[in-house]
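Suppose a colleague, Dr. K., hands you the sequence of a protein chain of 234 amino acids and asks what its three-dimensional shape might be. Before reaching for any lab equipment, you can write down a predicted structure in token form. Begin with the sequence itself:
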Amino acid sequence: MKNTILLLLLFSLIACQKQVTNLEPAASNDFTFQISTKQNLIDSEYYRNYSLKNYLTNGNFGIGTLNGVDGELIILDGIAYRVDYNGKVNRPELTKNIPFGNIKFFVADTTFFFSSDSLDKFKEKIQPLMKSEIAAIKVTGKFNFLKTRSVPKQPPHGKTLAEIIAVQNIFEFKNIEATLVGFYISDQLDKLNFPGFHLHSLLNDKTGGGHLLDCVFDSVQVQIDFSDGLKILF
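The predicted structure, expressed as tokens, is then:
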């Protein structure tokens, strides 16, 4: 009888251990992960030895850039896309390195629909919904207008961010379907990242996109994934 009880207790402990082990990855995956910091970018540190392959192990949804600020990076459904300085979309090699970016596993906490208004009105609507210091934002649907940019690749410790943006290449699209991918960053994280909304766009036909400058919405679905916090990877 004692042996039977001991065996039952042992099986119970093993079962509990399995349950806890299975729960741990899900809990850790609700964080947003970041490469480098805001200050490093301000200091023109545009090169780091952290590969895109490693980056993608931390999430399936994100944004960033490649070494040298070489294009605008969009991570959507676990696939990395890059909008280069000429506006062309390509799939970068996984061996490429990333100097800055945010990524997480996307699971929507809030979903709603938005239509026929400006980017400023959109931000006004979702700002009060932000209940975490960082949140992932996904917007899919039809746009009357999209204005985006990409920037040229820089040498190590090259121009300042302001100087790079001054020579940005701007793209405009009308009456298209696209996805916006990005994050809201609160003022609490100002020392680590740039507060506010940082959104990149990717046209559904993969013919264009970039860092979002402006847009006019037709009808879109908005999904927000509130994050448990921010973790610096490298």
